[in-house]
Amino acid sequence: MKNKLQMHFPMIRTRGEIMAIIEDSERLKRMFYHWTEEQRQEFLDFCTGVRGVKTMYDFISKEVLNPEYNPERVDELLSLLLKQKVRVVEVLPNDSTRIADEMSLVIMDIVVQLKDGSIANLEIQKIGYKFPGERSACYSADLLLRQYKRVRSKRKKKFVYKDIKQVFTIVLFEQSPSAFHQFPDTYLHYFEQRSNTGIEIELLQKYIFISLDIFRRIQQNKNNRIENRLEAWLSFLCMDGPDAVISIIEKYPDFKAMYGQIYDICQNVEGVMDMFSKELRELDRNTVQLMIDEMQEELNQKKQEVEEKRKELTQANQELEQTTQELTQANQELTQANQELEQTTQELTQANQELTQTKQGYQDALARIAELENKLKSV
Asked: What pTM did the predictor assign?
């Protein structure tokens, strides 16, 4: 019995047909059974149309969206994202001076020159990098400088800065960074530099970030209803369920050719298995690298917390030392006061003794006088 997608794409093989090809080759058998059960199921579901069409495989996206073979597809996608009609006239090489080897998390990365001379960098990331803004700004600056050098070399003495055109950095995240999830109802984010005064100066660099995971959730909440061409393109890129595929081709039949191209690729089982194995290796490396990045970030945060605690402890020790010094000084002053008090007490005791002696002498004198007076009266 045919599944939903086999009704639309007759070239899709059955599970039995694909397994027969695999079992007939020792190399393919070793490769297939080296995968985990989950990975084997994913491969078979993809090739047989059970799971749908996963465009986000690296080898699929690069084939379907190759601007050299199918420039009109990239033209339309860029036009929809940039909200203006554009046309690719040249595919530019990815410069070897890119800031770091970050290919492990990148599904597709193409740089094209548009008809008006502007540059567009279209990139799809499986997992969004840390610091997406800083990273994109660096790549945008790199593209801008490459354009400047190329145009200046071509124009020579006729060069003016107005010859430099806009640079668009467009990043689609299959799994977007956490910052984007603060806006759960928004999947398109446009950035450009603006003045606080309203003065208009062309600063050339513009950015678009698309959270495909947020878009996918929004589409699922409205039952995969496609309302426009941009939604169709984004659904094509990130939604692989059979119902989503059928919704797209029913709304826009021209997308069927792209899906057909993907299933034509699947006819080469050996080639697809090789590419799928490469995807799995990259995914493993991605996961390890992401874990390392996250652990490094956590370690840096812990180091910062320890440093802050150390500073707080140092300050507390200084305050304690100062308090100890103040207490020592207070004790010394108290000891001195006690000594002075003791001396004063001794002086008071001696004065009391002298006063007692004086009082006793005074009483003795009074008694003597009384005695004398008595003798005088008796004479």
From this structure: 0.71
At position 55, the amino acid (one-letter code) is T
DSSP label at 149?
A: H
E strands present in the chain: 88-92, 106-114, 119-127, 167-175, 188-192, 205-211
The answer to whether residues 266 and 45 touch, using CB atoms and an 8 Å cutoff, is no
279-307: pLDDT as tens digits: 776 665 555 455 545 555 666 677 777 77
- The bridge status of strand 106-114 relative to strand 167-175 is unpaired
Exposure on the CB side of residue 8, measured as CA atoms within 13 A: 23
From first CA to last CA, the distance across the chain in angstroms is 163
Query: Distance between CA 171 and CA 86 in Å, rounded?
Result: 18
For tokens 């009609």, the residue is 85
Q: Decide: 210 and 194 in contact? Cβ < 8 Å.
A: no
Two tokens, residue 373: 């007076």
Q: Rounded to whole angstroms, how far apart are CA atoms 277 and 352?
A: 108
